Amino acid sequence: MLIAFCCTLFFLPAAIRLFHPPGEPAKIGFRWAVPLDEAARWYRRPLLLIFALLGATGLALLPQLRFDADPLHTKDPTTEAMQTLYDLMASPITNPFTIDIMAPSVADAVAQAQQLATLTLVAHVLSINSFVPVDQTAKLALIHDARTLLDVTLAPRPPATPPSPGEIRQAAKDALAMIEPSLVKLPAEHPLAQVAGDLRQLSVASDPVVRAADESLTRFLPMQIEQLRVALTAQPVTAESLPPEITRDWLLPDGRARLQVVPKPATQDSVVLQRFVDQVKAVAPDAGGAAVIFESTGVTIVHAFRTAALTAIGTIALILLIALRRIVDAALVMAPLLLSALATVVVIVALRSTLNYANIIALPLLQGVGVSFNVYFIMNWRMGQTSVLGSATARAILYSALTTASAFGALALSAHPGTASMGWLLLISLGCTLISSLAFVPALLAAVGAPRRLRRLKTRQG
Q: Which of 311, 405, 426, 406 has its CA nearest to residue 360?
């Protein structure tokens, strides 16, 4: 903006002086729009009433303007990475939007966990006690029975001679012979039918293919057998016998215990996630963690946007007062600017759109565009020009807006959802600004009448 300002003040006058562009052969403006000025003056009261209702509607809808605090919604949901992330979020085990709470003691953690588990958006609550199994006596008896049955099968043996490709092919044929009688009773897409197809190919495959299949199928088998052997040697578990690497994540030396609240998959929606945070914080006001940080960041962004918008409006009003030196003239410039902002709110809510991290930064920028449109008309009005829509200024503003809209349209056509949402919001806001400047301003100036200075001058001349 500063570079463009300097170019306008220094480069443009020098270029005009150097190239001497010829003047226009005729008056510039939209001749067809001259009757519209008369219509705006004639129907100024109905027009002002319509725009007043529009502004009041936008003011009433401001609380419904929603900010989507989920930055993932600005990404392309069809990409492999986003699909994987959503699959992880759908699982209570890998959901990243958890809440952490510090309880004074393990007993307090147990009581608080029971209270949190009753909340509608809570999937489950983890604590140090979550790693101590319940009903251990019955479970250990079942494990002992399984160890008795499988002890001989799982006992370590000396390494066996690897089977030859011919033996593997024969084993595939034998397995296929046991499967085939059942295939006639199963649909073609049944998994067992697919296994039979693989066995047919393996029974006639070459030696390298057979060896590769054998290695792929048995590569992790020894490790899995060893894990099963260890699992069958389970012993009673207490909180004191837990491994230190688990204990240090859930219990502090001073006795404080950590709780982790896991949400249900429905919290992928930012509104539902906000309700989840509110529910948990109603029970534990000092709760923290990823979900709380996530929502608090959204609140901070919205507050920053509100501060930026109000600061921009206040700064624009101050500059207008200094430049125009009349409160009425500054108010005439600010009125359509505020109206276009409220009209933008109406359109956003009507389209059920939301603000997000990508497009929220664009709205304060358009206030400068809107005020530049309006100030041109007000300056012409101060000089006594009553024709607004038929003037060269209206023509320049229209083409300037179309030029700006082409750049915003390029953003709206982006394949990136966040960039596209910024482009669409800028287009909507620019359209509301243009309508406000070309429809509201003529009716407003017609209602105000000629400037007092010009009325005095006409009185003296008369």
A: 426
Q: How far apart are CA 266 and CA 123, in angstroms?
A: 10
Distance CA 462, CA 455 (A): 10
Angle in degrees, 0-180, between the axes of helices 290-324 and 270-283, rounded to the nearest 10 = 110
- Banded pLDDT at 420 (limits 50, 70, 90): confident
Query: Given this model, what pLDDT does residue 15 score?
Result: 92
Residue 453 clears pLDDT 70, i.e. is over it: no
- Could you tell me where in the chain the CATH 1.20.1640.10 domains are found? 30-71+295-450
pLDDT in tens, 205-230: 999 999 999 999 888 888 998 899 98
For residue range 342-369, list pLDDT tens digits in order. 898 899 899 888 888 878 777 777 677 7
pLDDT of res. 341: 87
CATH class, domain 99-132+238-288, is alpha beta
Tokens of 104: 């004074």
Q: What is the pLDDT of residue 460?
A: 56
Domain with CATH 3.30.70 in the chain: 99-132+238-288
Residue range 378-393, pLDDT digits in tens: 888 877 777 778 888 8
Question: Exposure string (b/e) for 326-353, b if CB count within 10 Å is 16 or more?
Answer: beebbbbbbbbbbbbbbbbbbbbbeeeb
CA-closest candidate to residue 289, choices 329, 261, 310, 315: 261
* The domain made up of 30-71+295-450 is a member of CATH 1.20.1640.10: yes
CA distance 411 to 416: 9
pTM of the model: 0.68
Q: Indicate if the pLDDT at residue 21 is higher than 60.
A: yes
Decide if 207 contacts 165 (C-beta within 8 A). Answer: yes
CA distance 168 to 27: 94
